[in-house]
Amino acid sequence: MNKIIRYFSKRSSWSLPYFIFLLLFVVLPLLLIVLYAFRDNQGHFTVDNFVKFVTQKEALNTFIYSVGIAMVTTILCILFGYPAAYILSNSEFNKSKTTVLLFILPMWVNFLIRTLATVTLFDITGLPLGQGALMFGLAYDFLPFMIYPIYNTMMKIDKSLIEAAQDLGASRAKVFTKVIFPLSLPGVLSGVLMVFLPTISTFAISELLTMNDIQLFGSVIQTYIMQSDTMNYGAALSLIMLLIIGITSLFTGGDAENESPGLI
Question: What domains are defined for the chain?
């Protein structure tokens, strides 16, 4: 009994539940994905699943289309998110910081609920569901993930740098282009990662907003995973997606990770 008490009196012992959770729900699923990705239906080692992705036009074309949709969504989020983040971070325009909650609150609502609300909105207004609805829904769902990291970065900018530029006679446009915008780029990069990568792999949003007429790469992965005879191929597609995310995050460096908002 005393040994148990002494063990749990150590701070390091309290990390054990988190370590077990990490093993069961992160490490083990990843290992299973790798295991199934390099196996065929008979359980033999193979790389045919990856060759099939390159040679089969359906999955490859869907992936290229998903990348295009993700790029457009990211650009839309930057166009709408950057001005919003600038206004929220500027005390001259935003007197009360509580206004930021209006942009953060949607991040606390489930994606599915927001998407269903978008479907209802299009039904009420009589607008057709399709690619236009998909772009609107993706931009609407991921916009807060672009606003907050940019806002967070702008709030950390040393105000003395802005004051120094103003004292040297720089106009508002010069202050923005020479000081604020360059220093806010880490937040933009973080927002791009948070919008671009999840958009490629999403599936529920595209299925609901297009009545399953348009499939993104995540929908293709889900379709193959749900079928027992193609589960290995679906695992290979999942592994490809994971590698793309990992490589992208690796080459963007640590700045984007340091600017990631803690509320997401």
Answer: 55-256 (1.10.3720.10)
